[in-house]
Amino acid sequence: MAKIAINIATGSLQQPEIIVxxxxxxxxxxxxxxxxxxxxxxxxxxxxxxxxxVATSSLVPSIIHFDxxxxxxxxxxxKHYLITQPAQTIFSAKRLMGKAYDDIKKNADFFSYKIIDxxxxxxVKVQVADKFYSPIELSSFILKELKQRAEHIxxxxxxxxxxxxxxYFNDAQRQATRDAGKLAGLxxxxxxxxxxxxxxAYGLGLSKDESKTIAVYDLGGGTFDISILHISNxxxxxxxxxxxxxxxxxxxxxxxxxxxxxxxxxxxxxxxxNKTLMQSLRLKAEEAKKHLSFNDSYSSDLxxxxxxxxxxxxxxxxxxxxxxxxxxxxxxxxxxxxxxTAIDTIVMVGGSTRIPLIKEAVSAFFxxxxxxxxxxxxxxxxxxxxxxxxLAGNNKDFLLLxxxxxxxxxxxxxxxxxxxxxxxxxIPTKAGRQYTTQIDGQSGMRIAVYQGERDLIKDxxxxxxxxxxxxxxxxxxxxxxxxxxxxNADGILLVKAKELRSGVxxxxxxxxxxxxxxxxxxxxxMESITHAKDDIAIRALVEARTEGEQLxxxxxxxxxxxxxxxxxxxxxxxxxxxxxxxxxxTMDDKNLIHQKIESLNEVSRPYAERxxxxxxxxxxxxxxx
Length: 625
What we know:
This protein is of the alpha+beta class. It has 4 domains: 6-202 and 376-391, ATPase, nucleotide binding domain (Nucleotidyltransferase, domain 5), CATH 3.30.420.40; 206-373, ATPase, nucleotide binding domain (Nucleotidyltransferase, domain 5, 2-Layer Sandwich), CATH 3.30.420.40; 408-528, Substrate Binding Domain Of DNAk, Chain A, domain 1 (Sandwich); 534-620, Substrate Binding Domain Of Dnak, Chain:A, Domain 2 (Up-down Bundle). Helices cover 38% and strands 24% of the residues. Strands 3, 4, 5, 6, 13 and 14 form a 6-stranded mixed β-sheet that branches. A hairpin with a 6-residue loop joins strand 4 (28-34) and strand 5. Helix 8 crosses helix 10 (275-292), helix 15 (532-562) runs parallel beside helix 17 (590-620) and helix 16 (568-584) packs antiparallel against helix 17. The protein is globular. The termini are far apart.
């Protein structure tokens, strides 16, 4: 095994290789680096080839296609299948990161592929044929494509990256992005907020003498966010962020699509039934949006039907969406405690900010011209490259704060490691997450703290263990145990567990780096990268088994309680589905387990809804079922 040097203070590998900046976007993704000669950030583009439209673009469409054999195509190659094989072509996977089905069900019609509704709070899964994918796996395919693209252009291995996320991404979404990077074979040195990256790309925050308050207006493909940042002494502080995780260029396309559908007498159900037509219209709508940013009218045809749109009509269609973004701007300013006049610069990010109406509206709101001098598609990736350069130690004007060399987390069901503080987090830092009980009447919870980068706790280093006792007896899932990690400036970890309903709590102090040599940290890091694919496969299998076991227990309790409301045939078919799931749990096949979970859900869903209706009817009469 090759020896690799590591800086124990920063936890970063010290190979003489490039660190790339990656913008993992909803619609498009791209890679940027600091040019070794000019020292300026540049987005990587393939050398000119036969297809000029692809050759000159730094953008890789965030689209994944699975063929009948399970082979994966990403980017422009996958985009062609949006119309011909919509159920096998995944787009906007970023919108699913860290989400449960309840979070996205009102927008489920937007997707042309199957998202599993498992009636639980577990994270969503996408089904393609007989395989099931998590948003982490889907994102990893995009990141792997970006990695290979960078290696092809640079003619050198690329193993380290800085990846950007929206400022409002929660801990689960950030960890999901890290896991996707790891699965793609990348050592993710830092997760950076997109507005922070954008400000760096505009040169804001690079001067120690600078003190500014800026607004970053980011209208991407799937999300909108407005961030108010304060920059002082080279430190970028996010004062507030606001926005909408379901407002972006995709929704502008959707507004045009629905306008054309209405004009041609098509209903929402017509579009749901014909995914190919829906995707064809969506791509035409995207084409119209881009055309109308520089022209007064658009006209095309689809299957003999004329699709036309004038700029005035386009502006009317998108005005409500623009107004929503301005409402978010007001709220962000209010949360930051700033007035419009306190904003020194307005930075525009995201391809949709090229639309003239949006520029005009934002300028009018802030009372000054916006700054859109950097390519809005590339600005976030360019900033990520600058951050990567800082982490590499090439930018001597920046002082890197102490950071955690290894991730810290706890053991969860199935012997999995749930990371609360990822490695390379700046210290002091804190993080918290809520957990619950798995057994009815459970009065205690064992909390085991681990350090390391592997998915199974058996491969990581145990730091401490304690029991939270005297939890009042409640049904499984009802107690809310908040676990919080706090690392102080001396690197001491304080772990606190508190049951929120009863107030029971316990605290323990841990020295997370005690007894670890540089070589041991180096070995742990290398093993996490080497075994990433196997680790995540094992994690997915363990999580599937845990989900299956919980579903069996829930279904059994439901049938015992509501037996009188079920027919003999329903009980028989449920028993068969439960038996099939029980058998699948004994096998090492994650997809088979998910298939049987989905089969049991399909069997039980009709009568579960019926029993719920009966319960509501009784409750309305003042009775309790």
